[in-house]
Amino acid sequence: MALSCPTLPQDGVWGVHQWENNIQPHIHGCAVPMGAPGSAPPFPCRVTIPLYDADTGLLVLAGKGENLLYCFEVAPTQPALTQVTQCRTEGSTRGLAAVPRLALDVMACEVLHVLQLTDTALVPISYLVPRKSVQEFHEDLFPDCTGMLPATDAQGWWAGDSQQVSVIQGVGRVSLHPARRPTETFTSPIIAGTGPTNTSHTDTDTGHTDADQSEASGYSSPSSLASPGSTATSLSASTGPSSGFASSPSQKSLQSILGPSSHFRHTQGRVLHRDQHLTNLRGLSLTTPGECDGFCANQQRVALPLLSAGGQIAVLELSKPGRLPDVAVPTIQNGAAVADLTWDPFDPRRLAVGTCVPALPGRAQRVPQLQGLQITPLTTARPFWCTAGEDARIRLWRIPEGGLRETLQEPEAILRGHTEKIYSIRFHPVASDLLVSSSYDMTVRIWELSAGREVLCLQGHTDQIFSMAWSPDGKQLATVSKDGRIRLYEPRRSSQPQQEGPGPEGGRGARLVWVCGGDYLLVSGFDSRSERRILLYRAQALPEGPLSVLGLDVAPSTLLPFYDEDTSVVFLTGKGDTRVFLYEVTPEPPYFLECNSFTSNEPHKVKGGICCLSLTPYLCCQAPLTPPPHQGFVFLPKTVCEVREVEFARALRLGQSTLEPVAFHVPRVKKEYFQDDLYPPTRVWWEPALAAGAWLGGQDGQQRRASLRPADMVPVSEAPKEAPARKFVPASVYLEEKTDEQKKEELLSAMVARLGNRDDPLPQDSFEGVDEDEWD
């Protein structure tokens, strides 16, 4: 028997896979030799789930944890097992169940239907027999099967009754022919008046009742609606020609099966029009350290490290999109290779840059003399080369109003205190003129920019610091390092960590971000098998370990998280990736609610086109139409989102030579209203709550919040309630008879309305004629 076995909601090609272990199965007492023609393949040494269909003699075997399903035809003679087909699925098998034969699609020649339970889905698998004609019923494939009425009850079975279902009261077996199949209705127990009422029995262990379990199941068996002595004919007559399944108005059962879902599960990401792109970017530095995001942006401009010597940085205005000229553009001469860079959230013109290599030789240094600021002149004798600890400085640059018009060579200030190269730098989210930096010297230093001095130095790290993040209120600082530890500091209280907890296992890289109002920490990293995963910690219980761990995929780059505090959605992607993962983070299980991921598949981004082999000039191959990987993915502030289009996040995607804006929307029907459920009052991030000196003195501030609602939009919560439309036209409309005079008047009115008012002057009436003598 030739079978095809597609998984219904998936697309793919089924391959053949041979397991390594050799175990001889015994069926009907017949040992099946391995390797013989038509014999069964070897199975792994783990639990095997068998599903046998007595009507067709088909046996499906699947091992728990495996992604292969084998189908055999069982015979009482040798060979006992004949392999028919095998299927490879995307997920590993956690459970397996067969759908009853009465639910098969017989007109599509479906002889077996199996449901596979994986870690994240329930996958239906259909076994089809290819036939030329699908318009007729094939009797040879679908013999009569066992019905759904019991042959006896429990008391009769205990008394020794062994009556078979196939011979009960002469009814025989049930035909699968659509025209001869008995009609059965699955009715919700919530609908009144269908069948006897179930008696509620309290379960002392769980506290639930049978009635609750019946409601959770969502349907009841047809046999429970009929008396034990009724037959299939009487059942069909009593239920009538129903459509098959009467749905329940309650969604409790569906929610209990599928679990909670995110309001942003249907998020749609799209690249905005090309007239908003920045193109013809040349000489981009695509080798920034793993602790750096690759570039940085604010609501006005973007800073891009360049590959040229001297650590040059291009600063481009987002208000001036288009193709950059082929000539050189003004840049910042940083004087050393860029390790990390970030914009001041309270001053869109101030850029902080951390470096890791010696300064550019031959360039003098002229910076303002700030109190307590250590300034080291750049050397002119040593050539340019890259080494750790030579130039562990932080440079502050001020961009002129309107953007760069000439190359900047003089920074506003230089901060020096670290003895090794810089890892990352971050501005304080609440207080102005506060900057924190981490370095290879295993220290974290906090700088007061207004005074130009180092004010705090945090200790306790024993290995490379992968990432650090301020809490939303600015009171705490969290770090994750290569030693596999997460540390939580309160810088104003102690230079040592207040808490420590286990971090990601792998030492390839990690990032962390505060979520859920600052009560939880989300960490992205790797496990020992290089699988990328995200971990959720309770901030005040780091030693207890993660609350939840979610594995994503296997890739070399570290996932860079961005958290939207207004919607509690986290965006995750890495350098060199083509996909952006979206999850809504909740403080209760299951903690991570999956949303639609974003992948750009626009064909104009395909690079390479046609490539030809040099040795064979007539042989060509077409470059695959796959989206190119992005070299960076940075999100813009919430205030740039277009709320009229229900856009809740916007990012900039850096390619090989382009910078493209990507907008994330939530599909809504009534876009004319302000979606206040998606746009709560947002934090005024561009205004500091207090100064650096006040924060260092022990004060805490809280930023105010503002609404994103435009003045001319009404919140959707205040929209007028629409009256429900009538599903059926009332009978009075059809029963009312119009007289001939009424029909005539309606016809004339329609014609007049279509042709217009006849009393209006005609166009030719306004023309001026000529005199009579002019005709001669």
Automatic annotation (TrEMBL):
Which BP terms from GO are recorded? actin cytoskeleton organization
Q: Which GO terms describe its cellular component?
A: cytoplasm
Polar residues bias: start-end ranges = 245-259
Residue span of region Disordered: 179-268, 754-776
For molecular function, the Gene Ontology terms on record are:
actin binding
> Which residues fall in a compositionally biased region of kind Low complexity?
220-244
Q: Which domain of life is it from?
A: Eukaryota
Identify the InterPro entries for this entry.
Answer: Coronin (IPR015505), DUF1899 (IPR015048), WD40/YVTN_repeat-like_dom_sf (IPR015943), WD40_repeat_CS (IPR019775), WD40_repeat_dom_sf (IPR036322), WD40_rpt (IPR001680)
Q: Principal localization? A: cytoplasm
Q: Where in the cell is it found?
A: Cytoplasm
What sequence ranges are listed for the domain DUF1899? 256-322
**WD repeat spans:** 415-457, 458-499
Positions with biased composition (Basic and acidic residues): 202-211
- Enumerate the UniProt keywords alphabetically: Actin-binding, Cytoplasm, Repeat, WD repeat
Entry's Gene3D superfamilies?
YVTN repeat-like/Quinoprotein amine dehydrogenase (2.130.10.10)
Q: Which family does it belong to?
A: Belongs to the WD repeat coronin family.
Q: What does this protein do?
A: F-actin regulator involved in anterograde Golgi to endosome transport: upon ubiquitination via 'Lys-33'-linked ubiquitin chains by the BCR(KLHL20) E3 ubiquitin ligase complex, interacts with EPS15 and localizes to the trans-Golgi network, where it promotes actin polymerization, thereby facilitating post-Golgi trafficking. May play a role in the maintenance of the Golgi apparatus morphology.
Q: What is this protein called?
A: Coronin
Taxonomy of the source species: Eukaryota, Metazoa, Chordata, Craniata, Vertebrata
